[in-house]
Fold this sequence. Notes:
CATH topology of the largest domain in chain A: ABC transporter involved in vitamin B12 uptake, BtuC
Strand content of chain A: under 5%
CATH superfamily of the largest domain in chain A: ABC transporter involved in vitamin B12 uptake, BtuC
Strand order of the largest sheet of chain A: 1-2
Number of strands of chain A: 4
Number of domains of chain A: 2
CATH topology of the largest domain in chain B: ABC transporter involved in vitamin B12 uptake, BtuC
Helix content of chain B: over 70%
Number of strands of chain B: 3
Shape of chain A: elongated
CATH superfamily of the largest domain in chain B: ABC transporter involved in vitamin B12 uptake, BtuC
Oligomer: heterodimer
Amino acid sequence: xxxxxxxxxxxxxxxxxxxxxxxxxxxxxxxxxxxxxxxxxxxxxxxxxxxxxxxxxxxxxxxxxxxxxxxxxxxxxxxxxxxxxxxxxxxxxxxxxxxxxxxxxxxxxxxxxxxxxxxxxxxxxxxxxxxxxxxxxxxxxxxxxxxxxxxxxxxxxxxxxxxxxxxxxxxxxxxxxxxxxxxxxxxxxxxxxxxxxxxxxxxxxxxxxxxxxxxxxxxxxxxxxxxxxxxxxxxxxxxxxxxxxxxxxxxxxxxxxxxxxxxxxxxxxxxxxxxxxxxxxxxxxxxxxxxxxxxxxxxxxxxxxxxxxxxxxxxxxxxxxxxxxxxxxxxxxxxxxxxxxxxxxxxxxxxxxxxxxxxxxxxxxxxxxxxxxxxxxxxxxxxxxx
Amino acid sequence: xxxxxxxxxxxxxxxxxxxxxxxxxxxxxxxxxxxxxxxxxxxxxxxxxxxxxxxxxxxxxxxxxxxxxxxxxxxxxxxxxxxxxxxxxxxxxxxxxxxxxxxxxxxxxxxxxxxxxxxxxxxxxxxxxxxxxxxxxxxxxxxxxxxxxxxxxxxxxxxxxxxxxxxxxxxxxxxxxxxxxxxxxxxxxxxxxxxxxxxxxxxxxxxxxxxxxxxxxxxxxxxxxxxxxxxxxxxxxxxxxxxxxxxxxxxxxxxxxxxxxxxxxxxxxxxxxxxxxxxxxxxxxxxxxxxxxxxxxxxxxxxxxxxxxxxxxxxxxxxxxxxxxxxxxxxxxxxxxxxxxxxxxxxxxxxxxxxxxxxxxxxxxxxxxxxxxxx
Lengths: 386, 375
């Protein structure tokens, strides 16, 4: 590995960490699309800043662009406040307009400006090590490393200082307000950090792909845990993993680094989405199936409990009475047998003592509308689940 | 070329005519379907779908190696649909919210598309140039066959919309009721969503991946301000969309270096701003005027009721009183007093005022009406 390669991976990882932290809170606050809006609408800010400074890495440009990001948030909120359109429509109206202004500004000045839309949108990480930072005439590493490093340190300091406030206002803004932490300040603080991070990251990974780095690791982490600290850590780890693996995939395919980092994020999310324990797709589908069978079982037991007549409890009759298909009836019957809830004597089904107890308790919970309790009760009664 | 040249050329020049027709039809169909997206609170779905279409274009090119726009659009359509259904899967099967699902699919698909595009660029194949026009769109590359395709799709949309009008409308405003009536809501839902995807994919070539969502939203959001009726809204949105297309093309054709997509979006944005401000019933301007008018009426009533309270204590209700006893706190200004005189509720004699018979009656009924309304 050459030093340029190490530097690229370092920059990518730092960007991933810097994005994952505000991203986690955006996902939790259901504001993920705001990051998309910011990432598009900073374009006019970048263009204006570039006209003034002629340097993509100047702090003034970052400041101007971040300001555009905050203007976007304010505009969205103002439009939403008029009540004329819903919030999502407000977002969808503001950022394409600002983005269009940016594109037109670039197009009108294309001849004398060394800046094109592709560079802003997609960035080119591969060139980052060539733009060196000179401190007192000494080479101090790539400029983007310094920029994103500074942003990351500020973000981390803010995170540690205001972790409690952030946590509280994210999960219970009413309580936060009543305790004297202003949710508005926290909100705009978070928006500012998101804007600055987006701008700082845009020339490394591109403005649009910042969204992926903000949303995808946080979303994947959210499927795995419901503890905020663990979620932050997981999101950071996922970000770093995709940054480094993405770099090597791009190296192998000789394609865009930013694109391949995003694709790795996509693959990572897909894996988590499918296989996450409890919250993943497979687990959810399995659980839904289990619950469906167990509800059937309960219906079946209820029917038995309600009828003492022999002909109502004959195996063949049950099949047509409850109107299930053969397979389903068989599964339910087997499950009941395995759990010792029924016994079959001469094709007549009857409840055991245990089955009787289970049914009465379940009915109790359903009548008192405490359906959630049934899940705990199932653990006590079932030897085998559906 | 200035605007005047444009309008004289638009009927004779082949390219200009094609582009203008294309953007107009595109604006109409996206505006029409966008109405449904906006009302279903799926405004940002368009943004996600248009980004999600990018890898489809790249894969279609990788497989066929040809730049036939219909095949590329077919690829875009498929990957747009995959993106849409993945979004639905995330929202329904996990606890992640719709904004997260949208942002995730949007960025991940777009990133994957960019990976493929850069990968294609490195291939030793001279045919690959120009795929990136789908990023920002190039209306100038529209040819007659594209316009025909748009026309056909628009007609299909229209027919389907008219056939399922009742179902669409019902699902839009009361999904649960629709279900209880026995309609297959899932089917209707998928039908609307698929047509939205189709409209977005059609626009990719003209407006591009990034700005397509605005084409869907802006005309619909503007139309929403003028009416509370779905049919009128859909019609108006189509109209606004078509006009944005035509004006946007005209403006961008009359200047150098002005890409069509962004200009169309900005024109549509102007429509939105005008609608937000000037719409008679919901617009900000008239709303503000109504607020001011109400406040004035309230001041007037306040003064009148104060006068009534004083006049009540006298046997002769028209007994004159000094103007001096009225103050700002009672909503009194020279203007309101003059208005009361104009309405013939009060007469003024020098520095004294006195309530007329009519004024007394109105003031007495002022609160009666209020209490009646409260009951």
